Amino acid sequence: MKPTALLTNDDGINAAFLHALVAACVAEGFDVVVAAPSGERSWIGRAFSRHREVTVADYPNLGRQAWSIDGTPSDCVNIALGHLLPAKPDVVISGLNIGFNATMPLCLSSGTLAGATEGTAWGLPAVACSLDLEQSIFEQVHRTSSVCPPALRPHLEAACRHAARFAKGLVGRPSHGLQVHSLNYPATVTDGTAMERTTPALVRHGSLFKRSAQGFSFAWNDGENLTTDKQSDLAVLERGLISHTVFDFGGTAPH
Question: Taking each helix axis from N to C terminus, what angle separates 153-170 and 16-27, rounded to the nearest 10 degrees?
């Protein structure tokens, strides 16, 4: 029997990156089901839609079954596991995200990581995967997320193949605590790119807003990287390698 993978993301169910990951998971031998937001829900962290109804609609021709859900990534996984799937899947995969989810501040804000975290909260192996992009390519893909630029396609597909194989390796293994495997792929990733274990870099961004006509609007800045560790996620990505960080949200620091 094929293992079942539940896929979600935070860029929306129309995103080409998600569709490429579905294709890679099917090729890896997964029975794929998808529960993803109806539109982009980035930078939303582990938010749930507590104060409004969340609607669900069938989405055709994506995996064995797919649902477009008007909610957050956490809503999507929770509703799928609690109401839409007849049995638990073997693994939850969130991504493939447009842009990296490296550094601790970004990881704490990431809807991609939140989707995977909801999976591990149900006792399932969980993977969050993201592709680093050069800024101009990021802006292009972000504007039209349903289309992947031809020059990027080989790297996207290589990342998706690796993520699918990685997730396949978690099937049948016990899930300890609240562990999320976060994979960040360099923009030039190929099938031969090596992976290294990493820890999240600490970056201070300061203000992420600028004054606007009505108040304040979001304004990204790269911040100040305070981490010198050569095994930080940023450092490994900068060396052109795949970053693999394991978040154990069930652990706490000693007093």
Answer: 50
8 A C-beta contact, residue 55 and residue 69: yes
pTM value?
A: 0.95
Q: Which residues pair with 248 in a beta bridge?
A: 179
pLDDT in tens, 189-246: 999 999 999 999 999 999 999 999 999 999 999 999 999 999 999 999 999 999 999 9
Domain region containing 125: 4-248
**Can you list the alpha helix ranges (DSSP code H) found in the chain?**
16-27, 73-79, 104-109, 111-121, 135-143, 153-170, 233-238
The structural domain count of the chain equals 1
pLDDT at 252: 55
Among 58-62, 81-85, 247-251, the range scoring the smallest mean pLDDT is 247-251
Sheet holding 242-248, edge to edge: 56-58, 65-69, 31-37, 4-8, 91-98, 126-131, 179-185, 242-248, 195-197
Helix (H) or strand (E) holding 225: strand 224-225
- Does 172 map to a domain? yes
Structural Rg of the chain based on CA atoms: 17
Q: Cβ(174)–Cβ(78) under 8 Å? A: no
Return d(Cα 141, Cα 149) in angstroms, integer.
7
Stronger pLDDT, 74 or 175, i.e. the higher one:
74
- Residue 255 lies inside a defined structural domain of this protein: no
Look at residue 254 and tell me if it is in a domain. Answer: no
Of 85, 176, 96, 102, the closest CA to residue 129 belongs to 96
